[in-house]
UniProtKB/TrEMBL annotation:
GO terms for cellular component: membrane. The chain crosses the membrane at residues 21-41, 53-70, 82-101, 127-146, 153-172, 178-195, 207-225, 237-256, 291-311. Keywords: Acyltransferase, Membrane, Transferase, Transmembrane, Transmembrane helix. The keyword Lyase does not apply. This is Acyltransferase. InterPro entries: Acyl_transf_3_dom (IPR002656), Acyltransferase_3 (IPR050879). GO terms for biological process: polysaccharide biosynthetic process. Residues 21-307 form the Acyltransferase domain. GO terms for molecular function: acyltransferase activity, transferring groups other than amino-acyl groups. It comes from the Bacteria.
Length: 321
């Protein structure tokens, strides 16, 4: 029985940008729900799984990139893609925080610019970028292991991730484990990229075996955390998100039509991710939910168009130097 065949992986490559658009919309809905005070709404559970989809698609794309470039060039390309626009938007956010929220520049702003505030302070404002930079750092090594050991690499990495999650709960803040849970979708993306590159078929028995191993390890993890009184019940959903993510991506591959609007959102997902939360913060004083929603959407669209244009110009300038 074959579940992830060459046709499926090819369609994933073809629809990757549209699926990123879907994931970005889910993340935005998630943050809107937070601003509206719907923290315990099912929308929250469905919304933040968009982050898992992002990491999966990022792993899939980075797996291809590593196969075409040396580690040095891979790192350089990632830095060129992310860091310039990240710096611009973060500096503007610092200024915006001062003007609109009366927040003075502090040490955390410096750490945020250095892409380490998530690790030093548990800062969640741009944690996806900081986590991604760490994942990118590890990617060439993981792909080398996959090339050499194949699916056995999964059996090695999953216990390592589970142990890392367990020990991360002893840190001074508990947000690191949010990143570690999301490392699983990224790893799955790398495996899918390698399967596509090898034109091989990912057999269902391997997928089921890997899924069973993952669930068993997560069960042991949750029991150990509960025994040590470290279990955070609100984070239990992250244990099943990778499985739900696979189902959602597979459904998108088969049923999501090509759509220019979703493609554009996926193409601008970096700018959209960096811009939408500061905008929501600046407009959070608007009491009327409908007005807040309308103003936020308009401001996000305008800012994303502007930042995407700036990012394109910077990319041309950097690549021609």
């Amino acid at each position: 029985m074959q579940l992830m065949n060459n046709s499926t992986l090819y369609n994933l490559s073809e629809k990757r940008t549209e699926i990123m658009g879907v994931a970005m919309l889910m993340v935005i809905v998630y943050h809107f729900a937070l601003n509206f005070g719907f923290y315990h709404s099912p929308i929250i559970v469905r919304g933040d799984i968009g982050v898992d989809i992002f990491f999966f698609l990022s792993g899939f794309g980075c797996g291809f990139s590593v196969s075409k470039h040396s580690p040095k060039d891979f790192y350089a390309n990632r830095i060129k893609r992310i860091v310039p626009i990240y710096f611009i938007i973060e500096i503007l956010s610092i200024l915006g925080n001062y003007v609109f929220l009366d927040q003075h520049v502090g040490a955390i702003d410096v750490y945020r610019l250095l892409c380490i505030s998530f690790f030093t302070h548990g800062d969640l404002s741009v944690w996806y970028i900081h986590a991604s930079m760490l994942f990118y750092l590890l990617t060439p090594f993981i792909m080398a292991m996959i090339n050499k050991l194949g699916f056995k690499t999964f059996y090695f990495l999953m216990p390592c991730v589970v142990l890392a999650i367990f020990f991360s709960t002893y840190l001074h803040h508990s947000n690191i484990n949010l990143m570690l849970y999301r490392f699983v979708p990224y790893i799955i993306g790398l495996f899918c990229a390698q399967a596509a590159l090898d034109r091989s078929i990912v057999k269902t028995r391997k997928i089921i075996g890997g899924g069973i191993l993952y669930l068993l390890l997560m069960l042991v993890l949750q029991i150990a955390l509960k025994k040590q009184e470290l279990l955070i019940h609100n984070q239990l959903r992250y244990t099943i998100y990778p499985l739900l993510m696979i189902v959602m991506v597979y459904s998108c591959i088969n049923y999501l039509p090509k759509n220019k609007y979703l493609f554009w959102i996926g193409l601008c997902s970096l700018e959209c991710y960096l811009a939408h939360q500061p905008i929501m913060n600046y407009l959070s004083n608007i009491q009327n939910n409908i007005l807040f929603f309308a103003c936020s959407i308009i401001a996000i669209i305008v800012s994303v168009i502007f930042f995407h244009y700036i990012n394109k110009k910077m990319s041309i300038f950097i690549n021609h130097k």
